[in-house]
Design a protein that fits this description.
This protein is an alpha/beta fold. The chain has two domains: 136 residues, Rossmann fold (3-Layer(aba) Sandwich); 73 residues, Alpha-Beta Plaits. It has seven helices and eleven strands. The chain is elongated and about 55 Å long.
């Protein structure tokens, strides 16, 4: 399967580390900077192309029209959004756009981007797992004192009121992202399928319990 990574900043390089040499993966890396591309060509088992990821010609040369996945991971939200749009137009099957700010999330969804990544510090290994079909994509980042923060979909609990959901001990949902806006939820708020739940857990074990609660294979607990 062909996977394209546009932007070789910190996240792009971590993705390259995760995907380079992976059996069955044809990796293509794009970046504007000549020195960055030279270093990447020496380090990774990948086709490395220098140029602007917003160029339809360069994306075509990279094989976006036949790629299984493309990850837009430059340092610019605007550029990533444009890359995502062009990749979808070219026919890339799965497009992941990395955003530092939530302002463009709705725009990305409107143009058909498959996944929007926020926060940017989400683990590269989770993106890898998603594009390789190994797991559902939800992103988490370690914060102080070992706590974890993740973005989850309501899944089977869509339609339930937040206060009716038996959250595991040590887990809270302080923010819900809805229609591009962050909302501090009341217990009476009804979850929608398109919501993004920002989940805070005391540790990895409690985060996994929260993931299991909202996983598509889980049924609502009553």
């Amino acid at each position: 399967m062909k996977i394209i990574v546009v932007g070789l900043g910190p996240l792009g390089r971590r993705l390259a580390d995760e995907l380079s040499g992976k059996k069955g993966v044809e990796l293509v890396l794009l970046d504007r900077d000549e020195a960055t591309c030279k270093a990447a060509a020496e380090r990774y088992d990948a086709l490395v192309l220098q140029g602007d990821g917003t160029s339809p010609e360069l994306l075509s040369k990279a094989g976006a029209q036949e790629a299984e996945a493309l990850i837009a991971a430059t340092g610019s939200d605007a550029l990533n959004t444009v890359v995502g749009l062009l990749a979808k137009q070219a026919g890339t099957k799965e497009v992941v756009v990395v955003l530092n700010d939530l302002a463009l999330r709705t725009a990305c969804q409107a143009i058909g981007v498959d996944k929007v990544v926020s926060p940017v510090l989400a683990a590269a290994s989770e993106i890898k797992g998603y594009v390789l079909g190994e797991r559902v994509l939800d992103f988490s980042v370690a914060v102080s004192s070992g706590a974890r923060v993740a973005e989850l979909s309501p899944g089977p609990l869509s339609g339930k009121k937040l206060g009716e959901i038996p959250l595991p001990k040590g887990v809270t949902i302080p923010v819900i992202l809805r229609e591009g806006k962050a909302t501090v939820p009341e217990p009476g708020i009804t979850l929608r399928q398109e919501d993004v739940l920002v989940v805070v857990a005391e540790d990895d074990r409690r985060l996994e319990a929260a993931r299991a609660l909202f996983a598509p294979s889980s049924g609502p607990e009553g």
